[in-house]
């Protein structure tokens, strides 16, 4: 078994999001190459060739355009703010774009490159009772239109989130944040939610019963209506904050799971988490991921997500948050038409750290192109006769 000399350094070094940021901020190519050699994550083509080059290019372009870009978009946002507003479980969002859990760290990391208050909100990294170092590496693999990950719920644990991460976030984010909660038992979900219930900063609890990358928890709760209801009940009993149950697409009947959560007291549903997937390295003839399987996300899963959001929105009376492969303003419009009242953006943040900002800034022009006055006008449009 691997000996962990310095758990907190390993936590930082291992996390996909902090890794992307190391690359993003490194100034010289040589420096980046050094980071690549040192970091434990850098074993895949995805990170070496694709992400790294893209991040460097993004940084160079953005630096050049930065001032012009910020001035222009601030004017647009002020002018268009009412058009973009939406409501999620009784809380108003300036716009429907929410950075998805696991792709945005605890938020403050991204505050170094843009004002994260421009987001509708974001969902922070899936948090468990105890700290977790996640799965062994390699735990990222490339696919033609997205990525696989088997990070395995790496996080510092609820105590550190409350005492260290949330105070850092408070300094740069002034909106209610979505807390993403994971667990390996019903009791653990309830414990973490109860601790977060006492935190004023938390607007919603997004309860992840859909992680495919851990054994003995996560997705296990989200594939059976009864177990999904059990977790919902347990969490409902410890908090008055809105509970959003996050569902897995790895089921045959998504509607039955969503309805079970609604009946057990959920205030909303978010979907989809990643799709269970696998890649094999032709040279080694072995699975690319150390965990063998991982979760697929990115543009490849978008049509599946739209289908499931449509089905769930039709069947339940509570708000639905749509995610899975969203990477453009047009994708946001499509998700809203399927019945989502807000949209999360995940893997796109890892290929372009400005993805959420770019999508928000692009929404007014995309709405104009399709003759949409206000986003609230199109929620569920595809369900109309
Ligand atoms: C690297 C990585 C880590 C993730 N970690 C979490 C997590 O901790 N909790 C969670 O609910 N979802 C997690 N997800 C799933 C995303 O939040 C999202 O549901 C999924 O990736 C689909 O959206 P996307 O295609 O926009 O990425 C993670 C996804 C990625 C790529």
What does this structure look like?
The chain is of the alpha/beta class and 385 residues long. It folds into two domains: 7-79; 87-384, Aldolase class I (TIM Barrel). It is built from 13 helices and 16 strands. It has helices at residues 7-14, 16-25, 29-38, 45-84, 158-170, 186-197, 219-222, 225-236, 254-263, 302-315, 329-338, 348-351, 355-369, and strands at residues 86-88, 91-93, 97-99, 121-122, 140-143, 146-149, 177-181, 202-208, 243-246, 268-271, 275-277, 280-281, 286-287, 294-297, 320-323, 342-345. The strands form four sheets. It has an eight-stranded parallel beta sheet, covered by helices on one side. A four-stranded antiparallel beta sheet has the order 5-6-14-11. Helix 6 (186-197) links the parallel strand 7 (177-181) and strand 8. Helix 6 (186-197) runs parallel beside helix 8 (225-236), helix 8 packs parallel to helix 9 (254-263) and helix 11 (329-338) packs across helix 13. It is globular and about 50 Å long. Mean pLDDT is 85; it is low at 1-14, 21-50 and 66-78. The site of flavin mononucleotide has 27 residues, from loops.
Outline the fold blueprint.
Layout lengths: L6 H8 L1 H10 L3 H10 L6 H40 L1 E3 L2 E3 L3 E3 L21 E2 L17 E4 L2 E4 L8 H13 L6 E5 L4 H12 L4 E7 L10 H4 L2 H12 L6 E4 L7 H10 L4 E4 L3 E3 L2 E2 L4 E2 L6 E4 L4 H14 L4 E4 L5 H10 L3 E4 L2 H4 L3 H15 L16
This protein binds flavin mononucleotide (FMN).
The averaged pLDDT comes out at 85
Please give the radius of gyration in angstroms. Answer: 20 Å
Strand line-up across the major sheet: 4-3-16-15-10-9-8-7
**H and E order:** HHHHEEEEEEHEHEHHEHEEEEEHEHEHH
The largest pleated sheet is described as: 8 strands, parallel
**CATH class wording of the largest domain:** Alpha Beta
- First and last CA, distance: 59 Å
Strand content: 15-25%
The unreliable regions are 1-14, 21-50, 66-78
